[in-house]
Design brief:
This protein is mainly beta. It has a domain of 176 residues: Ribonuclease Inhibitor (Leucine-rich repeat, LRR (right-handed beta-alpha superhelix)). It has six helices and 45 strands. A 14-stranded mixed beta sheet has the order 1-2-3-5-7-9-11-13-15-16-18-20-21-23, with no helix packed on it. A 13-stranded mixed beta sheet has the order 25-26-27-29-31-32-33-35-37-38-40-42-43, with no helix packed on it. It is globular. It starts with a helix and ends in a 22-residue tail after the last helix. This is Chondroadherin-like protein. Associates with collagen and binds to collagen fibrils. Keywords: Disulfide bond, Extracellular matrix, Glycoprotein, Leucine-rich repeat, Repeat, Secreted, Signal. Belongs to the small leucine-rich proteoglycan (SLRP) family. SLRP class IV subfamily.
């Protein structure tokens, strides 16, 4: 029979091969067709039906129309490199259910639509390198359940939204190198349970995207080299399985001692070609075997002894050599003996964090005494110098200035003269109590301003005059009791405002006047008890509003009016006991992520979620006290639903919820709190529903734990991503 089928197949191929398109070459034996650089403007319609590999490189298709390959359903490999493709119509690849390899590199594709890749259920490798992709619409990869490698290198991506890779459940390598990424959504990688390698090198990340990376609990390799990252903060990387980390050719000036404490499997750390003068002992990185520091300006003084001693104790191999002092220049780290690592005589006003012999960076031009200036990266640093006044005299082309951990007290007018090209300014932990009017005068290129961990309680609008491009303002952990009213009038480009962990008590009318471009507002951990109905109205473009850990007693429904773009709302850890009807109606058309966990919520009215429906993608209701929830059958787009630690009353009234959960194909964590015979059981497995009117025999089979164990095959469902004490994601069906 097999021989007969083979003969028939060869006969069909031979017949079809006779119709091989004129500019193409057909290989009968291997079922390959090559149509290279033939200036074709459409896919030939006479390609043999049994073709398995089709190479169309170097043609001119421009648009790939719907059903372009319906005539070749047996394709396994398709190469469309350098074909001037600018648009993939939705359904362009329908019918290619056997395709495992698709190469679309070096085209002009700018946007991936939701159905652009529909029909490729067997695809394993997708190459999109060297296009002009600026945006990926949600769901674009939703039909690629077999994909293992996704190559998006050398595109124009600047931002990755939450859940953008939803559906890629077996993806092992995601390549995002050579883009312009500088903002990653906290849940951008949340739906990648099988990912083992993530390449983010050659982008514009200024800091480790810690929250986004924490979702990748199975990744073993992370490439972050060639990003302008200046420092790695405490516990910045929480990746349980990470073994290899590359941070080479960045702009690192410092690494916290416990930066990698939450990545216990880390084996190799590549820090080549940075601006590190030394490292502290890396506490918590107990499995580390190798650290590469080649190309750093290592200062092998007494201050480096703790690191050198730690290397010896932990038996960690280190690559790198000394730049200073002159007597040790060129000496490999592993050849140094502690007595050789000496510090010179202190200056009259020594700084404990700076050795007396610290030189200015060679060739850096002007640089304030005691600071370091890097001409290559255009960075300046006076971190932890115990300075009382902001130093002057930095190179005029400085783009990043790190002044953290000093004791300035105030920022006076005109504190940064001549720094018209400065983009990022770090003033964290400087004891700052006030920014005087004109403090930022002349910083016309400033985009990022970090003022975390200071003593600021108020800000006048005049403090920001002269910095019109400011987009990211971080005021976390200061002493604000109300928003800095009117300060945003001179900041027309403000996108992100951090005011977390202050003492703000209310949001009043006019607090956000002028913040018309604000997209992300972070107010976690304040004491906000009320929000005026018009307080948020000026921020009409607001997309994220984080209010968790405040003192709100009810959902601020009236304040949500006029926010047509709001997609994420966090109300966790507020003492809200009841959700009334239409609580989220003002944002029902845009809301996608809703956090209502850990509130002590006791009652949800039947119409509390009125207006919400298919757009909702994640809903967090865990750790509350209600015993039932209203009908949510129209929440058809849910990808995450967490009902853990909710004491459901598993009686007939709850049967609609039980049936809905059964159809969702989601792990929701719902358990019964009562009656006594059901306490602790999963809602889906409770037998208390079997006496309810309308209960069917089929449902009884699904509800019986014993029967399930005896008859069912092992589940193919997989938990996607790491969600610490939080949600669960959609399983493979």
């Amino acid at each position: 029979m097999r021989l007969l089928l083979l003969v028939v197949a060869l006969a069909l191929w031979g017949t079809a091969a006779a119709r091989c398109p004129t500019p193409c070459i057909c290989d009968n034996l291997r079922a390959h067709v090559l149509c290279l650089s033939g200036n074709l403007t459409a896919v030939p319609g006479t390609i043999p039906q049994l073709t398995k590999k089709l190479d169309l490189r170097g043609n001119s298709f421009t648009v790939m129309p719907v059903g372009a390959f319906l005539a070749t359903p047996y394709l396994t490999h398709l190469d469309l490199q350098r074909c001037k493709v600018e648009r993939l119509e939705e359904g362009a690849f329908r019918g290619l259910g056997r395709l495992v390899y698709l190469n679309l590199a070096s085209n002009g594709i700018a946007l991936l639509y939701q159905e652009s890749l529909d029909g490729l259920s067997s695809l394993q490798q997708l190459i999109l390198e060297g296009n002009r992709i600026e945006e990926i619409q949600p769901g674009a990869f939703g039909h690629l359940g077999s994909l293992t490698v996704l190559d998006l290198r050398a595109n124009a991506l600047v931002y990755l939204p939450d859940m953008v890779f939803q559906g890629l459940q077996v993806l092992t390598w995601l390549r995002l190198s050579h883009n312009a990424l500088h903002v990653l959504g906290s849940e951008a990688f949340a739906a990648l349970p099988a990912l083992r390698r993530l390449s983010l090198d050659h982008n514009e990340l200024q800091a480790l995207p810690s929250e986004a990376l924490a979702r990748l609990d199975g990744a073993t390799r992370l490439d972050l080299g060639h990003n302008p990252i200046t420092y790695v903060a405490e516990e910045a990387l929480a990746m349980a399985s990470l073994k290899h980390l590359s941070l080479d050719h960045a702009a690192l000036q410092d690494v916290a001692p416990d930066a990698f404490a939450l990545s216990p499997q880390l084996r190799t750390l590549d820090l080549r070609e940075n601006q590190l003068q030394g490292l502290p002992p890396l506490a918590g990185a107990g499995g580390l075997a190798r650290v590469s520091l080649a190309g750093n300006p290592l200062l092998c003084s007494c201050l480096l002894r703790p690191f050198r001693d730690w290397l010896a104790r932990a038996r960690v191999q280190a690559e790198g050599s000394c730049t200073a002092p002159p007597a040790l220049r060129g000496r490999p780290l592993d050849s140094l003996r502690p007595p050789e690592m000496r510090c010179g005589h202190p200056r009259p006003t020594p700084s404990p964090a700076v050795p007396s012999e610290q030189p200015r960076a060679a060739g850096s031009g002007p640089c304030p005494q005691g600071c370091a200036c890097s001409p290559d990266f255009r960075h300046g640093s006076c971190r932890n110098r115990d300075l009382r006044e902001i130093p002057r005299g930095f190179p005029r082309d400085t783009r990043l200035l790190d002044l953290r951990q000093n004791s300035f007290g105030t920022v006076p007018p005109g504190a940064f003269p001549g720094l018209k090209e400065l983009v990022s300014l770090h003033l964290q932990s400087c004891g700052i109590g006030a920014l005087r009017p004109g403090a930022l005068q002349g910083l016309e290129s400033l985009v990022y301003l970090y003022l975390t961990d200071n003593r600021i309680s108020t800000l006048a609008a005049a403090a920001f005059v002269g910095a019109p491009r400011l987009a990211y303002l971080d005021l976390d952990r200061n002493a604000f009791v109300h928003l800095p009213t009117d300060a945003f009038q001179v900041l027309p480009n403000l996108i992100s405002l951090h005011l977390q962990h202050n003492a703000i008590r209310e949001l009043a009318e006019g607090d956000l006047a002028g913040a018309r471009g604000l997209r992300w507002l972070y107010l976690t951990g304040n004491a906000i008890g009320s929000i005026a109905p018009t307080a948020l109205a000026p921020a009409k473009m607001l997309e994220k509003l984080h209010l968790e850990g405040n003192r709100l007693m009810e959902v601020p429904t009236s304040a949500l009016r006029g926010l047509p773009a709001l997609s994420e709302l966090k109300l966790s850890r507020n003492p809200i006991k009841r959700l009334g009807d239409g609580a989220f109606l003002p944002v029902a058309s845009s809301l996608q992520h809703l956090y209502l966990d850990n509130m002590g919520l006791e009652q949800i009215s039947p119409h509390a979620f009125a207006g919400l429906g298919p757009k909702i993608r994640s809903l967090y209701l865990e750790s509350n006290k209600m015993s039932n929830i209203p009908d949510m059958s129209n929440f058809t787009g849910l990808e995450i639903l967490n009902l853990r630690d909710v004491p459901f009353h598993c009686v007939c009234q709850l049967l609609p919820l039980r049936r809905w959960i059964d159809k969702l194909n989601l792990h929701v964590g719902a358990t019964c709190g009562s009656p006594a015979e059901a306490r602790g059981l999963k809602v889906k497995l409770s037998v208390t529903f079997q006496t309810c009117p309308g209960w069917s025999r089929g449902e009884a089979g699904r509800a019986s734990p014993d029967k399930t164990k005896a008859t069912s095959k092992p589940s193919k469902k997989k938990r996607l991503g790491k969600w610490p004490a939080r949600g669960f994601q959609k399983s493979r069906g």
